[in-house]
């Protein structure tokens, strides 16, 4: 939670970030970390009341602005970028965090309309947000984008296979955009394993200890584990890093080679 103290660092001083899907969970933690490091942040989400509460938690209108809407709605994307520039003067950083997974079960049985919606929100929306920010000066001062993918995007994920496929596509999208947008804009991605959020609750609820036992670090992730890596990739500390994926999984993938 924000305090009245000075930012913990000033590495994002004068920068404005848009973080999608940030009324709670990973997105909110990312927004808080960026503010702690000196940024102004515009957060998005579907519900205005949840965004209002998040803005208050982040420190109020001097440092944060909430814009409600659906992540895959082009009018919402335009409004958000426009209000970011109107309120804080620029768009310098973008975190594509919004993701949905409305279905659970075998991929062979998935409703194709649901599959299309997953790709629309998890992939096409990330591209659209990047396009909109790019059109409005994202790279003018050396911009950076981080896409929030998933461990499900780099290994099979039974039950959430379409979600995993969309996150794999997002990883490839990251690489393509990094090639196209350099040198003025860097584009990277993170791939978290199970993080203790409302979105992922079904993956660990009622058996957290058993799930965590499979991780070498013997715990599930928390949003702050992800926000620190995202902040690094957005910062000048990562000035020679683009088109890369950081896996944040408590060591879970270490057991993949042995099956």
From TrEMBL:
SUPFAM superfamilies, sorted:
NAD(P)-binding Rossmann-fold domains
Database matches in Pfam families? adh_short_C2 (PF13561)
Q: State one molecular function term (GO).
A: oxidoreductase activity
Residue ranges spanning the membrane: these are none
Q: Which Gene3D superfamilies match?
A: NAD(P)-binding Rossmann-like Domain
Alphabetic keyword roster: Oxidoreductase
- Judging by the UniProt lineage, the source's domain of life is Bacteria
Q: Which InterPro entries match?
A: NAD(P)-bd_dom_sf, SDR_fam
Q: Which residues form a coiled coil?
A: none
Q: Which family is this sequence assigned to?
A: Belongs to the short-chain dehydrogenases/reductases (SDR) family.
What's the protein here called? SDR family oxidoreductase
């Amino acid at each position: 939670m924000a305090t009245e103290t000075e930012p913990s660092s000033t590495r994002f001083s004068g920068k404005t970030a848009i973080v999608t899907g940030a009324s709670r969970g990973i997105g909110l933690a990312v927004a808080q970390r960026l503010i702690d490091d000196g940024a102004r942040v515009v957060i998005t989400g579907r519900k205005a009341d949840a965004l209002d509460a998040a803005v208050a938690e982040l420190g109020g209108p001097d440092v944060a602005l909430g814009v409600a809407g659906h992540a895959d709605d082009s009018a919402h994307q335009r409004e958000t970028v426009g209000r970011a520039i109107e309120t804080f003067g620029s768009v310098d950083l973008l975190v594509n965090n919004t993701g949905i997974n409305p279905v659970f079960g075998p991929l062979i049985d998935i409703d194709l309309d649901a599959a299309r919606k997953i790709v629309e929100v998890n992939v096409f929306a990330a591209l659209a947000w990047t396009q909109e920010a790019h059109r409005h000066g994202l790279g003018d001062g050396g911009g950076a984008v981080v896409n929030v993918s998933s461990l499900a995007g780099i290994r099979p994920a039974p039950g959430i296979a379409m979600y995993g496929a969309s996150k794999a596509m997002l990883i490839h999208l990251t690489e393509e955009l990094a090639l196209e947008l350099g040198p003025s804009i860097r584009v990277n991605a993170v791939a978290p394993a199970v993080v203790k959020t409302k979105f992922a609750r079904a993956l660990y609820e009622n058996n957290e200890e058993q799930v965590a036992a499979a991780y070498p670090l013997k715990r599930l992730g928390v949003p702050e584990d992800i926000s620190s890596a995202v902040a690094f990739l957005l910062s000048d500390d990562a000035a020679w890093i683009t088109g890369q994926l950081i896996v944040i999984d408590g060591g879970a993938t270490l057991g993949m080679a042995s099956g």
